[in-house]
C-alpha cells in the first residue's frame, strides 16, 4: 500500500521513522512518500520536504513565515493528489496537518493521526475538525483518552513512542568510557544541557545556560546538539573558551551518563525522566508569542513529566523566571540534596508505570492495517 506521512519536527521524524519500520514489517509492498527528516530517510528515500524547512514555532515566527507555510500547504495538496496514497498518516504538527486532514477527507482519502495535537492545552475548537476529518486518532498520553471521551470521540491509546526510541537506541549506546573519549570529555560528573532542536529555542536558551559556566568546577557541562543545525551556529553562541562541550546526535548517550540535566520544555523532559536523570525545566519564547499564548493555554504545567503525573515533579521556569540564578538554585538541590533527588527519581519510577510498556509504533502499524482491511 501507499502511505503519505507528514512529520514537521525532529520528534515527528523520530516517531515517523519507527512507524515506517513497523509498517514495512507487516506490508511487504509498502511505498512511502513523506515530509520528515534524516531518520525517515533511513526507511525510504521518497522525501518531499525536510522538517528543517517547516519548524516554525510561536505566533510571531509563524506570522513571519506565513507565505512559505501557505505555499507548502498548496504544494502538499497537489502532491497528495498526484501520489494517490491509500492512507495519509499525520504526526502531530497541527497547524499544518489539520489543514491537510480537512483537504484529504474532502478528497476521499483515509486519514490517520498519530500523536494528537495538544488540543487539551489550547484551541479545543480543533477537536471538531479532528472529529470530522480524522478516521482514527492514536494518542500517546493516558489523560488524552478521557479528554476525547468528553468530546464524544473514541481514540486508541497506544503507549508512548519515546519508550520505543529509548528501547531501540539504548542497546547500541557505547560505554561511558567510549562516550567520554569519543567526545574529548573528562571524568567529571556531567550536567547535560538540552537547549531544544529549533533555532528559535536555542538562541534564547543557550545564553541562560552559559551563565552556569564556571559555577560548578567539580562538574562538566555538555550540550546536546543536533546535526540538523550547523555547528557554526552553535559555536556562534557557545565560545570555545566557555568551558562547555558540545556533542551531536547523542542525546540518549549524554543523558544516560549525566548526573543531572537542564532541559528545554518539550519531548526531552520526558526522555530525561525515563532515563532517570533528575532535571530542571525551562522555556523562553518570543515575548509577543508568550503573551498571546498565555491567554489561551489551559494547562497548569509545560513539562510532559508534570502533565502526565498531574503534579509538580520537576521544577519549571518560564520566560523571565528562567535565569542563571533560578536554574542554579534548583541545580544545587538536584546535585547536593540527596533526599530531594531521590524523591524525584521515585516519581520517575511512578511515571514509567503510568506510561506503560514499549511498542507504540508496532501497535499503531497494526491498528492502521487492521482498520484499512476493514474499509476494503
The CATH architecture classification of the largest domain is: 3-Layer(aba) Sandwich
Instruction: List the domain count as a whole number.
Output: 2
In one word, what is the shape?
Answer: globular
Strand content: 15-25%
Number of helices: 18
Could you give a short account of the major beta sheet?
A: 7 strands, parallel
Distance between the ends? 12 Å
| Computed structural class | alpha/beta
Mean pLDDT: 90
Rg over CA atoms, rounded to whole Å, is 21 Å
Roughly what percent helix?
Answer: 40-55%
Which oligomerization state do the chains in this entry correspond to?
single chain
Strand order of the largest sheet: 3-2-1-4-5-6-7
Unreliable spans: none
DSSP strand count: 13
CATH topology of the largest domain: Rossmann fold
Question: Mind telling me the CATH class of the largest domain?
Answer: Alpha Beta
Q: Would you identify the CATH H-level superfamily of the largest domain? A: Glycogen Phosphorylase B
Descriptive notes:
There is one protein chain. This protein is an alpha/beta fold and 376 residues long. It folds into two domains: 175 residues, Rossmann fold; 190 residues, Rossmann fold (3-Layer(aba) Sandwich), CATH 3.40.50. It is 50% helix and 16% strand. Strands 3-2-1-4-5-6-7 form a seven-stranded parallel β-sheet, sandwiched between helices. Helix 11 links the parallel strand 9 and strand 10. Helix 4 runs parallel beside helix 5 and helix 5 runs parallel beside helix 6. The chain is globular and about 60 Å long. The relative contact order is 0.12.
